[in-house]
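Incident log, support desk, overnight shift.

02:14 A customer reports that sequence design results differ from what the structure should imply. Their input is reproduced verbatim below. On-call engineer (initials T.W.) acknowledged and began investigating.
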């Protein structure tokens, strides 16, 4: 939003400059010839400039008066209904796997400077406001006299500079030296957030890449208000905690005398509200330790895994330190999958940012951040809705619990246990042993043998990102598993978290060092792991399903891998003529017709024009695509098989892809010449063909016709419109007849369904 608004402001300024330059050029051209009416025009122009100036100020105020999203004003303006939320992994993770680490480089050198407030411009920096030159130009003509100086060039602004140098590998050097002019390239990018102005300069040479980052922000003890940094009174962190509804945590902080040891540096505190602290039954009178017994609450039930985490004997001081990060961080500093080190044994604090229906949902170790960016002396305080336990175990450690023994067995069988061990950000929906016991023995045996798409089943339980339960409270949420298939989450009216087809999450948000685990009471089965019979049943292709059963093919196809099935529509199969044709077929004929609809695996995006698909019945199918430019004529490009257009495509079952076809496909049992000979309406055309060279080419399947062809066969009625002498010549002059017939021959297969009234130049030749 900030960058978008900045672009609009810049465009507005460019527009003003263009108008002004046009007026100056007009003055130069006409000089003294400007009349009184021109003076009035100039006056009107100045008034319009003032209007544009006011608009520019309003846009600028939108930039400088940004605020956290949890204000009452924002809440009043929220829409009632929004579409479902979609959360996907970053492209880098999808491209490179679960081991990709967030790009959070640590600067080699950091220097903070507090500028002299009396110096011209407030800051002596190498970076200028993008509108400074334009504003100066306009001010020379009396326009924009009050164009505001950017806040980051004013008083109480500190500058932080950092520099990193990365040496390039030999392979990078060989590539980059050909791309950078004169061996060096420099790129600069600046962006503004609610509290910072950041400029990065990247200098790349064949040997290394140097990144210099300069960050402008209000100095400690001041806060941005409008277009300036204003000094504010910073209270003690304990006072701030009290005022935010975190009195119990504040009392614990004070009693443990934690802050005294942290006065030498800035910190960030994630403070549980009193409601969250009330869930702990703590007794410090004897041992000053947090007892293992806890009272359950709806927000975060302590399950049978957490007591084994090794944290049951935490001291009160340790518990407080687990909520503190050793750096000063505001919302602008947070990034999705950012991992901070807490002051308790560097226990990780993982920050996640999710899109919400109305505003972003921020979490730390799956606890939702509530009140943000609260200032305190040498600290920033963010409140959270639960107590943060120190995180010491990985995803694999959690799955080592006895209740996950069957799930772990299949993970190891499919080679996914090592994948999880190396992952840096992952979510696992872990079915417990009770969930696996609900499956039939036959299906579990197939899974043990590596059948029934167990690989897709297991990968469906893993997300290549950290997904906490908090964003699901915003409504339905959709994400993607390791297969790229959709996973849908929602909450029932009672608050129960559900996944896919009625999978209940019985334990939420088991936070680990490399992700999160949710415990399920049901094994999830993606569509791509279900048998073909279930796909046909769920898609209402029941007639085709019954035909496969009648031919004894259903179980056979369910066992096959990497096949594509073309399924005629229910409407076609229930037509009287089609039904009569199928009913009259014997078992062998029906089997051959059905297998003519089964080919090697080919998704819709893999289909190519004039491609040949070998069927299990023997003969091949020919794919045709409509003109790729059909969309310009308002026609959606479509694919056809044997000239039968495809309807719905890419239905997924276990090792099967299904496409709907709008006609029953029958294996060919004759040649083109036989078809012409058997059609009484083409009797004269047959006589014309006899004795021609093209007839021989068709009989011998000449190389000229190897890529396929289409015959435009004139009927007898068409020939009857010709003169007698032309008809006679067609029958007697075979060279002439051959030339005429060849004009009715098209290269490649051309289907009637692919022909549309598309104007030139979007035509097939």
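02:41 Re-run completed on a clean worker. Output:
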């Amino acid at each position: 939003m900030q960058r978008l608004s900045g672009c609009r402001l810049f465009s507005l300024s460019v527009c003003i400059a263009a108008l002004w330059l046009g007026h100056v050029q007009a003055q130069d051209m006409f000089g003294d010839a400007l009349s009184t009416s021109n003076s009035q025009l100039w006056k009107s122009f100045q008034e319009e400039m003032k209007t544009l100036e006011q608009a520019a100020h309003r846009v600028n105020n939108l930039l400088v008066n940004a605020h956290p999203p949890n204000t009452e004003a924002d809440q009043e303006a929220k829409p009632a209904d929004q579409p479902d939320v979609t959360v996907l992994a970053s492209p880098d993770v999808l491209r490179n796997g679960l081991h990709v680490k967030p790009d959070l480089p640590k600067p080699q050198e950091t220097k903070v400077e507090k500028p002299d407030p009396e110096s011209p411009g407030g800051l002596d920096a190498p970076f200028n406001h993008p509108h400074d030159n334009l504003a100066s130009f306009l001010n020379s003509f009396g326009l924009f006299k009050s164009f505001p100086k950017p806040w980051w060039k004013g008083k109480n602004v500190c500058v932080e500079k950092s520099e990193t140098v990365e040496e390039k590998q030999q392979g990078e050097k060989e590539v980059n030296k050909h791309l950078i002019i004169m061996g060096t390239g420099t790129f600069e990018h600046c962006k503004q957030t609610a509290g910072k102005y950041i400029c990065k300069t990247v200098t790349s040479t064949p040997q290394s890449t140097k990144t210099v980052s300069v960050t402008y922000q209000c100095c400690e003890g001041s806060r941005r208000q409008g277009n300036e940094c204003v000094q504010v009174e910073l209270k003690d962190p304990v006072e701030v905690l009290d005022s935010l509804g975190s009195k119990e945590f504040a009392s614990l902080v004070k009693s443990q005398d934690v802050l005294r040891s942290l006065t030498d540096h800035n910190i960030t505190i994630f403070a549980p509200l009193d409601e969250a602290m009330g869930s702990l039954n703590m007794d410090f009178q004897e041992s000053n330790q947090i007892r293992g017994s806890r009272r359950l609450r709806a927000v975060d039930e302590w399950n049978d895994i957490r007591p084994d985490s090794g944290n049951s004997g935490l001291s009160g001081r340790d518990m407080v330190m687990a909520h503190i990060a050793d750096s000063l961080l505001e919302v602008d500093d947070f990034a999705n999958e950012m991992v901070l080190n807490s002051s308790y044994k560097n226990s990780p604090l993982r920050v996640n940012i999710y899109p919400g229906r109305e505003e972003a949902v921020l979490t730390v170790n799956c606890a939702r951040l509530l009140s943000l960016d609260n200032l305190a002396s040498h600290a920033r305080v963010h409140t959270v809705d639960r107590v943060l336990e120190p995180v010491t175990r990985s995803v694999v450690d959690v799955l080592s619990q006895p209740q996950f023994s069957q799930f772990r067995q299949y993970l190891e069988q499919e080679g996914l246990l090592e994948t999880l061990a190396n992952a840096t950000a992952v979510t696992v929906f872990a079915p417990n042993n009770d969930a696996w016991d609900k499956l039939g023995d036959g299906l579990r045996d197939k899974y043990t043998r590596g059948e029934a798409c167990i690989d897709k089943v297991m990968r469906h339980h893993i997300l290549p990102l950290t997904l906490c339960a908090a964003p699901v409270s915003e409504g339905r949420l959709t994400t993607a598993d390791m297969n790229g298939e959709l996973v849908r989450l929602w909450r029932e009216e009672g608050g129960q978290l559900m996944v896919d087809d009625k999978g209940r999450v019985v334990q939420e948000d088991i936070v680990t060092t490399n992700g999160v685990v949710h415990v399920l009471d049901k094994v999830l089965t993606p569509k791509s792991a279900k048998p073909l019979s279930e796909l046909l049943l769920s898609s209402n292709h029941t007639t085709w399903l019954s035909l496969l059963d009648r031919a004894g093919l259903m179980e056979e196809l369910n066992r096959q891998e990497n096949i594509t099935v073309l399924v005629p529509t229910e409407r076609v199969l229930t037509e009287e003529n089609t039904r009569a044709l199928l009913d009259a077929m014997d078992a062998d004929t029906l089997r051959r017709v059905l297998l003519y609809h089964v080919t090697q695996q080919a998704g819709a995006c893999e289909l190519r024009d004039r491609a040949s698909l070998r069927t299990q019945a023997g003969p091949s199918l020919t794919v045709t695509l409509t003109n790729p430019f059909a969309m310009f004529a308002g026609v959606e490009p479509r694919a056809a098989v044997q000239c039968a257009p495809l309807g719905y495509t890419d239905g997924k079952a276990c090792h099967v892809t299904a496409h709907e076809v709008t006609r029953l496909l029958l294996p060919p049992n004759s040649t083109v010449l036989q078809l012409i000979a058997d059609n009484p309406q083409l009797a004269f055309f047959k006589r014309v063909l006899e004795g021609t060279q093209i007839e021989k080419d068709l009989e011998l399947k000449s190389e000229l016709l190897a890529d396929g062809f289409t015959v435009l066969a004139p009927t007898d009625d068409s020939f009857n419109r010709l003169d007698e002498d032309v008809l006679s010549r067609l029958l007697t002059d075979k060279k002439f007849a051959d030339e005429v017939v060849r004009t009715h021959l098209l290269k490649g297969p051309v289907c009637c369904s692919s022909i549309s009234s598309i104007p030139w130049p979007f035509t097939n030749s």
